[in-house]
Amino acid sequence: MTRPILRPRFMHALECFERMNGALPGIVHPEHRAAFVEQLVDSERRTEYFEHIVSRPGGCGVTDPRSPAFNPLRAAIVQSHAGNQDEAFWLVLLFVHFGKHRRSGWHLIADIYGQLGAGTLWSWRAVSSDVQGFRVWLDNNLATIRSLEPRRGFGNHRKYESLDPWNENGTGAVIASYVDWVGAAGHDARIAQMVASAATRAEGFDALYAAVRGVRRFGRTGAFDYCSTLGKLHLVAIEPSAACLAGATGPLAGARLLLCQPGQTLTPPALEAALIPLRTELAVGFDVLEDALCNWQKCPDEFKPFRG
Question: Is 0.85 surpassed by the pTM of this model?
Fold first, then answer.
């Protein structure tokens, strides 16, 4: 849906919400309201992108890290359609851990997944059967990866991560932790274990979100992005029932900025409750609202796009 269509829709929804619930303190000033609306538009369009690629994932080039068409999200869909669920989930993990850098794009994932163009892949099967070998390879090739142009980098959500293969908080430790978390039975068994007893998509999200937070360095942001991405790619039938503000930084700051009166500090549960009717009026998913709040609080009086 285009910006000229989404913008008045969200403006109208905010006006309707405020008529019933009172003014939202954070967007009383017109420039704050306009910036918040633009972030909602940006976030909704990112979600619509997922729907687009689910229906049109692309050709075989999207799965080849040597190809300019390589895209880990599209590749995950292609692998899932081919019945390669472990590889699909693995590509989502790579997307969540590395992200898409604003300048180097998918290059960092392609470098590592494709073993720097060697013609072999660090696929799920290869990594899960030889985590130590993966860490040694990363160690041996770290200087080369860091020397490449455009300069490789993590996406915005993971900008504080490290490529270090041996540090307890580096990429090597994250991958080792994820492999341990999935276990020998593979993703289908592990994910099914989390969501089997869930009566709703929201309960399934909550169960998987709680479990995957145990992966090293995932925390709240990594777990939310991982579960949201699986849902948006239709790999698992889950969706968030809340913005998961407990333990959040940017989204929590954004919610407080939007909802709190000057001098007031609402707890995450109180903020979550207040966001429920707002999300309903806006007719967006909680992932959209969470993303918009996070980006808006960085610059509440002027729209600035944030990517990655």
Answer: yes
